[in-house]
Amino acid sequence: MSGAQQKTEQPTPRRLQEARRRGQVARSKDLSAALILLAGVLAVYLLSPLALDKISRHMAWYFSNCLNWQLPDSSRPYVLFGYIWDEGLLWMPLFLVLVLAAVAANVAQFGFLSAPGVMVPKLERLNPLEGLKKIFSLRSLLELVKSILKIALVGLVTWQVAIHFVPSLLNLYFRPAAGELRVLLDVLIAVGAAGGATFLLLGAADYFYQRYDYYKSLRMTKQEVRDEYKQTEGDPLVKGWLKRRQREIAMNRIRSEVPRATVVVTNPVHYAVALRYQEGVDRAPVVVAKGAGDLATQIKQIAGQHQVPVVEDPPLARQLYRQVEVGREIPVELYRAVAEVLALVYRLKRNR
């Protein structure tokens, strides 16, 4: 494969933007899952005192009154529903935290993303052959091996944490109900935190790998970079031709208009502006040619060849060059300054 065909160039901003529009972003599902898990563990830890107190009171009330209830069978489901409703309200913050954590985990990785095209159904997605190719591909095999290793590592870490709670779990029978719940929640929080922290490290490593693989998949050949540059910035050959053509047009105008100008106002190095004013013909002085750099030099040379007065007035030259287009009359605010220049020209002509 030749060097021009190898994808050795980093993706351009336009390439990245197009991929993002198609829903292709660098994202680690493991990192998102780890952040959600840790957020859930933290929420359980913060809610556990209130939850234990409320669950204990519910259980105490239930066991104190369950034998004395004189409710018909048709009413008992409503009592159970009320209990479930109270418990659901108690743990509602946990569900809200999980939802917010899921959103934050994705936004932190690739920001807010709107890709409506991803939701459009495509027939090729329903092709069973394509599905089988993905299932039995080398990439799928590697993902399977990675998943097994991740599960094994997380399982090993959580097991090492869980075995420390075995004595407490064996003594649950001798504890009061509230104590049993406290031990179970402690085990859940400790195991969840250990597993979440391990999963977070694996997710961070996976995110950097996914980011590397994402940019690698979007790499471009040198020819693709050149083609994109032509599409966005224009063909350099065409741009060069247009630049030369614009310069030719400007030079033709300078050659034809400067000899008939009344005066040329200069910077004196950077700018040169040719003005024409004929009483009874022009309502106000008109800019007939202007230029910067080499064009300014050309204007002054042509003015010298045709005995057109050249007056140095840097502030006026800059204002005329920046504010007035060729072929337009000067604005009112420049009348006084231009009138002074024209008066100087007329005095020079009378003194000759």
Structure description:
The model has no long low-confidence stretch (mean pLDDT 81). A hairpin with a 4-residue loop joins strand 1 (263-266) and strand 2 (271-276). This protein has two domains: 25-217, no CATH class; 254-351, secretion proteins EscU (name from scop), CATH 3.40.1690.10. The protein is elongated. 66% of the residues lie in helices and 6% in strands. The longest helix is centred in the middle third of the chain and has 41 residues, at 177-217. It is built from twelve helices and four strands; from the N terminus they run αααααααααβββαβαα. The protein has helices at 13-21, 29-65, 76-110, 128-135, 138-162, 166-170, 177-217, 222-233, 236-257, 294-305, 314-323, 335-351; strands spanning 263-266, 271-276, 286-292, 310-312. Helix 2 packs antiparallel against helix 3 and helix 9 (236-257) runs parallel beside helix 10. The chain has 352 residues and is mainly α. It has a four-stranded mixed sheet, sandwiched between helices. It starts with 12 loop residues before the first helix and ends with a helix.
Structural class comes to mainly alpha
Q: What is the chain-wise order of helices and strands?
A: HHHHHHHHHEEEHEHH
Number of strands: 4
Radius of gyration: 40 Å
- Give the overall shape: elongated
Q: So how many helices?
A: 12
Could you name the ranges where pLDDT drops below 50 across 5 or more consecutive residues?
A: none
Strand order of the largest sheet: 3-2-1-4
How large a portion of the residues is in β-strands, by DSSP E? Answer: 5-15%
> Percent helix among the residues?
55-70%
Instruction: Please tell me the overall pLDDT.
Output: 81
For the sheet with most strands, the description reads: 4 strands, mixed
- Total domain units: 2
Distance between the termini: 78 Å
